[in-house]
Amino acid sequence: MPNQIVQQIPSWSYWLPPVCLLTGVAITGALNYFNNKAIRDADEKKHLKELMLKTSVEYWKQDIERIKLSNKPALLLPIESYIFHILKLSDEINLNKEITVERIIEIRKEFNILSEKLQKESN
Q1: Is the CB of residue 92 less than 8 Å from the CB of residue 103?
Q2: C-alpha span between 123 and 57 (Å, rounded)
Q3: Which of 62, 80, 84, 102 sits in a 20 to 30 Å window from 91, CA-based?
Q4: What torsion do the CA atoms of 109, 110, 114, 115 make, to the nearest 10 degrees?
Q5: pLDDT tens across 29-88, in order?
Q6: Distance separating alpha carbons of residues 84 and 8, to the nearest angstrom
Q7: What's the whole-model pTM score?
Q8: Which string of b and e fits 53-64 if b means at least 16 CB within 10 Å?
């Protein structure tokens, strides 16, 4: 009786479990790889933004100290303008664009326009 049952099973069915197992492992591995890559990329972006924020605050604090030491009246821009300036420069670097004098001048113009608007809003 058991031999009759074994003879009725098609020969391809012996290969089905290992093929399904390997397919499942490959799919799960691929999904895990892309999930881990997405998490790594998000963590890296978060770290870079935190770094840029800290850099902006330090830049702003240095300007405060410079103004205090100069004993001359000076305009201190709002901290948002420092954050914008540093983030804009970091975006240019992260986009792997070639940093040229012309591009820095363009960024500087954008920075000046934003700074003027922020200065008007803060007054």
Answers
A1: yes
A2: 21
A3: 62
A4: -40
A5: 999 999 999 999 999 989 988 998 899 999 899 989 988 888 888 878 778 888 888 887
A6: 73
A7: 0.61
A8: eebbeeebeebe
Task: Identify whether the C-beta of residue 81 lies closer than 8 Å to the C-beta of residue 114.
Answer: yes
Q: In the structure encoding, which two tokens stand for residue 49, read together?
A: 């933004």
Instruction: Give the three-state DSSP class for 72.
Output: coil
What value does the mean pLDDT take over residues 17-23?
A: 91
- The mean per-residue pLDDT over the stretch 94-106 comes to 77
Count of residues for the chain? 123
Joined together, the tokens standing for residue 84 give: 């914008």
Which residue is associated with the tokens 């007054």?
A: 123
List all residues 6 or more positions away from 119 whose beta carbon is below 8 Å from its beta carbon: 75, 77, 78
Residue with tokens 């058991």: 2
> What is the 8-class DSSP label of residue 9?
S
Give the CA diameter of the chain.
104
CB count within 10 Å of CB 84 equals: 19
Q: How far apart are CA 84 and CA 75, in angstroms?
A: 17
